[in-house]
Every structure is written in structure tokens, then in C-alpha cells.
Amino acid sequence: MIASIAWRNLWRNKLRSFIIIAAVMVGILGGVGSDGFMEGMVDQRVNTAIANELSNIQLHQPDFLLNNEINYTISNPDQYIEVANQMPEVKGASKRLICGAMASTATAATSVLIFGVIPEQEKKVTGIYQKVYSGNYLTDDQRIPVVVGKKLADKLELNINSKLIVTLADSSGTITYGAFIVVGMYQTSNNLYDEAHIFVRINDLGRLTGITGQVHEIAISLFDNEQTSLVFNKLSSSFKQQIDNKSIDIRTWEQLEPLLKSMIEMTAFFSYLFLVIILIALAFAIINTMTMAILERKREIGMLMAIGMNRGKIFTMIMLETLFLAIVGGLVGLLMSYGLVEYYAHYGLDFGSMGSGMSYIGYDSIVYFKVTDGFYLASFILVAITAVLSSISPSIKALKLNPVDAIRELN
Amino acid sequence: MSIIQINNLHKTYTDTKVPVKAVNGISLSIEEGEFTAIVGPSGSGKTTFLNLMGGLDTPTEGDILIGDKNIKDLNSRQLIDFRLHHIGFVFQSYNLIPVLTAIENVAFIMELQGIPKKERHQIAMELLKKTGLEGKENYRPGELSGGQQQRVSVARALASKPKFILADEPTANLDSASTEDLLNMMAELNKSENMTFIFSTHDKRVMDKARRIVTIDDGKVVSDV
């Protein structure tokens, strides 16, 4: 009956209870909504990075990543491709030659990273071919084709069929020139990437650099990013000998771009921090409301003590009142948050004109919200903890009441 | 048989500029089944005396023996438990729990005592019937008249099966008809259940019904008839 009294007490002053419920509701909506936005934005950035830039796992000659030295190559790359492709978790594996170069036209020049790829293999690993908005992706029948990013095309004033001259140092260290014909232009959500990465066929780049039968990178993409560690372990075990003799080095996307991983962790941290700050503010509102409620019911609580209700039960009654108040607000808040997150997860939040600014830092201009079940659960638990902690001060006030004083006030 | 034995009871309030001797050496014995009124002018100490008997306040000196227990020896937790099981209270302002219905108010004290739900419901129904509230079981206090609320309050006091009921000015907020009804009901319960009632009152009508009148003035018993 104590729970029943606590529940009914909530509705004695409906306006006051509704104000607190609304405050909890708005607080939860703010906390979960901001998490949905931040997590969605970071998740898109990570997914884009994996899909278009990094893939899930990469193999290199161990020293290659230090300075992209052209002679640090992987020999006999097909053995790795073959083993990777046999794993059921692997969507595709692609060989790449990578070379830093100066790209120029008649009007401008800029440094770029040239990726020499086998188009059909690359399509299974990265989604650049899906980002081509003008012209076509690489095919085998084109003549010295290159696919460039929109930002680079704008900078160098390139159009389809424009000629792009690249200058690079070949495997012998000799400066070499090559001409490519622009066959396609792509655009990702990352302007910086689009400005600095161009794609050609592996054989064309091989001829220019003098590297044949060897590659700089093998990129492996998976059906499910969650299986990255599993596949990493399987590959490490399959190629233990090559790793031990320093022929190759295997890295996951998290190892290749630790910033992305720390960004995910930071987002989670800030989401919780934001939620906790909101709840601390709410706690003060709850304490104030409950203290008011206790003071108004001082006589009644004194009477309950007089007739034999012990302090433990009075404490429980007040704690339950606070808990019910917060839980009602929390549940309604979570329900509204769920609706908000689902809406923006489906339709996205469009930043419109601000979007171009966001793409300079690698983010999409439309953010699709994402909130994990864990965050919903944690929000609910944090609300309950806030309620319990908030009930302590009003409860102590109630327990300090002397029934005699209450009786005196009564009569 | 004596159910309350009070010996040389003193209560002095020292939290005022000048110490106030609210109860100043009262010795009294109350027998089972009494219908006693404690009377006296305002400030005479009757409410303090009642609070001391009810274990709501602690004496400065003296003993209050209820059965074989000297309530002076009980700590605050034991006192709460003692009040729950041995003393019934009826307050001037009824003081029912406003969010509970009449039957729930009566059953609540039994829940505190740990009586099973079915049993307490049955007892509460019987008590409401005895106090003339049949058909009003599911009314909340706000839906009942003052007299009816005080009847629920009496039923609640009876529900804990106390040794005695302390009623501090129970008729102060009632009109004449309700006072008459309430007093008749309590007198009837006193007779049929042999329940001991101790009232503090100014009300002449209560005094007329009482079989014993203890008059207090300046914290002392000045007459006991």
C-alpha cells in the first residue's frame, strides 16, 4: 500500500507533478536527441571512411605507412587476396599501387595520392564507383583513364576528357611524367579526400612507376564491421610467417586511423557527460519539488509517525514518490526521444547551406540520427539513480520531523 | 485491572527563555475499560500529558507503565513499534490519509502491523460497519463529512487492536449532532468491546459522557472524580 500511497500522492498537486515530469521529459529528449545527432554524425563519418577510404583491414609492407616509400612493396600479392577471399566474412579484397605525385593542368597544379587499382576488385572494396556523379568509373577498355574528385576537378578546372599530367618519382627515383584522361568525377562527403585522391588502373600506374607484380596495399572489406577483429585474427594467424619475417603488416581501420576510434569514444563520453549535466540540473528541480511536497505534508507525515509508521517506511514512501515522478517523465521522454531519433534516422537532419562547410571536415550535410539500445537503457537507469539520489534530502527532512510537533500543529 | 500506571510524571520544556513545567508531578492509574476525560483550561498541560501517555513525547522525570512496559525505557524505534501495536490515536483534525479510501485508511495500520491483506480487509469492513460507515468504504476523506471522517479515524484506531485509545479533543471540529453521534458510538464501543478511551477535552458534552473526569491545572491533577 506504501507504493500505492506514493503513486496517489503524485497526483495531489497535478500541476507541480506535470512540471517535473515535463522537465525530466525535456531533459531526456535533449540528452538522447543530442546523442542521436552526435552518434549519427560520427557513425556516418566512420562508415564513409571505411566504405570509401580505408576499408576494414589493410596489408602493407611494414615500413610503407611511415612515408609511402614507393619501393616498400608486397611481393606475390595474389596469395593474400586468395586467402582473404576464401573467408566467409570477407566481401572483397583489392590490390593497390599508391604513389604520391604532382597533378597539373595548364592552369594549376597540386599534390595528390594516386591509387592504381583493378576496377572490378576495387568495386568490391570501396564505394568510390558509386560516388561518380559525372562520367564513368574505371573500365578496362578506356585509354589511360583517371577518376578524380570534384574538389580537385574544380581546383584544376578539369572536365570529362580533360588531360591530367602527373609527375612522380618512379621506383628508380627518376622523375617521370604521365598523362591521364579524366573519365569520371566522384564526390564523397569529405572534400579533403576528394581533393587529394585520384584513381587509375593498376597497370597504367605500374608502367609509370616501373613496378609490376607487386603492390603497396591490399585492402580488405567485410560484410560486417563488427567482424573486423575476428578477420584480423584469422589473417594474422594465416600469415604468421610473413608477419614474422616482416614481409607484411596487417592493420585494422582503427589502427590505421586511431583518430576515428577516439572520436567514437569521445562522442560516447560527451553524450553521457551531457546527459549527466542535464540530470544534475533536474535533480535540483526534483529536490526542490519534493521538499515543497514534504513541507506541505508535514502534519500528515507527523501523524503517520504517531500512529506507528516507522522511519524506514516513510523514507521508502518518499523515495517511491520521487522515483515514480522521474520514471513517468523518463519513460515519456524516452518515448518522445525514440520518435525523434527514428524520424531523423529515416529522413535525416539536413544542414542545407551549412553542409558544404561540414564536408570540409569530412561530414555529410545530412545527419541520420543513431542511438544505441544501450544508451536508451543507460538514460533510463541514470534517471532512476537521479531520482533515488534526489529523494535523499527531502526524505531526511521528513525523517527529522517530530511527531509531537506535528500533533501540536494539528490541534 | 490497571493498564496504565503513571508515577510522579514531570515534563519540563527547557527550550524556552524560562523553563516551562507542562506536567508537574502527575500520578494516575487507568483501569481497563475506562471512559476517561482529561479536562482543564488551555495551557493546563493536558495535551502534553496525553502525548506522554501515547509515547509521542518523553518525560523529564517519572514513569509511565503500560502493561509491564515502562515506556521511558524504550528507544525511538521501539516507541514507534509500541505505539503501532498498543495505542490507538484519534486526532482533533481527523488526520486520515487523503489519498486513501475509508477502508484503505482503516486497513493501512494493519498493513503496518503485517496482517495479511484478506484478513485486514475483512477486519476493516467490520470496523466500518461498527462505526456506522457501511456503504462509505470506498469514499475518500474529502468526500466524507467531518463526523464521518472522525468515525473512520476511530475505526482506524480500533484496527490495531490497541490496549487503549487516546483522543485529543476529538469533537473540537464537529457540530452538535456529529458530536452526539460520535460520543454515542464510542460509548457503545467502550461497552461492547471493553475498549479503554482517554480523551482530552474542553467539551461539556464529552465530560457528560465520561465516567471519570481528571482535571489538570498547571500540570497537576487538581481533581479526579
Task: Give a concise summary.
Chain A is of the alpha+beta class.
Describe the model.
- The complex is a heterodimer of chains A (411) and B (225).
- Chain A is built from 17 helices and 14 strands.
- Chain A has 411 residues and is an alpha+beta fold.
- In chain A, helix 2 packs antiparallel against helix 12, helix 2 packs across helix 14 and helix 13 crosses helix 17.
- Chain A starts with a helix and ends with a helix.
- In chain A, 57% of the residues lie in helices and 19% in strands.
- In chain A, strands 3-4-9-6-8-7 form a 6-stranded mixed beta barrel. A two-stranded antiparallel sheet of chain A has the order 2-10.
- Chain B is an alpha/beta fold.
- Helices cover 37% and strands 28% of the residues of chain B.
- Chain B has 7 helices and 10 strands.
- In chain B, the strands form 2 sheets. Chain B has a 6-stranded mixed β-sheet, sandwiched between helices. A 4-stranded antiparallel β-sheet of chain B has the order 2-1-4-5, with helices on one face.
- In chain B, helix 3 crosses helix 4, helix 4 packs across helix 5 and helix 5 packs parallel to helix 6.
- Chain B is globular.
- Chain B starts with a strand and ends with a strand.
- The chains are: A alpha+beta (411), B alpha/beta (225).
- At the A-B interface, helix 1, helix 13 and helix 17 of A face helix 2 and helix 3 of B.
